Amino acid sequence: MAFLEIKNLKKRFGNTTVLHGIDFSMNEGEAVALIGASGGGKTTFLRCLNFLEMADEGTIEVAGKFRFDAATTYKDADIRNMRLHLGLVFQSFNLFPQYTALTNVYLPLYLRAKERIKGETRF
């Protein structure tokens, strides 16, 4: 079973459909790069994956548990909780300038490990 499973993810902005039914799966420990033309939906896909945008259709499952289903209405507190489980490192203007690139990538993993040590597993 895949660690991350995305099914039929769709996102529209007005009359423009940006994501056209994305199906994607990823096993634990894999690394993936999104490559494509400007305006191709890469950032929108990542923003939906991290719940900074809400997909109009589709589901997101992490570690065998549904994290998002577009057919469900979520409270703000639920969305904030969902954001804790998936990280997104933006382009350089949103990085912590006092840290190296490696530390900016490592920081969410470190914070997640501290959370697990406290016994607060959220998956």
Largest sheet: 4 strands, antiparallel
| Unreliable spans | none
Query: Helicity range of the residues?
Result: 25-40%
Query: Number of DSSP strands?
Result: 4
Task: State the order of secondary-structure elements, H for helix, E for strand.
Answer: EEHEEHH
Strands in their spatial order, largest beta sheet: 2-1-3-4
Globular, elongated, flat, extended or rod-shaped: what is the shape? globular
Distance N to C terminus:
15 Å
**Gyration radius, to the nearest Å?**
15 Å
β-strand amount: 25-35%
Mean pLDDT: 85
So how many helices?
A: 3
Secondary structure class reads: alpha+beta
Give a description of the structure.
This protein has helices at residues 42-49, 76-83, 101-117, and strands at 4-13, 16-26, 57-62, 65-69. The two termini are 15 Å apart. With 123 residues, the chain is of the alpha+beta class. It is built from three helices and four strands, in the order E-E-H-E-E-H-H. The mean pLDDT is 85. 27% of the residues lie in helices and 26% in strands. It has a four-stranded antiparallel beta sheet with strand order 2-1-3-4, covered by helices on one side. A hairpin with a 2-residue loop joins strand 3 (57-62) and strand 4.
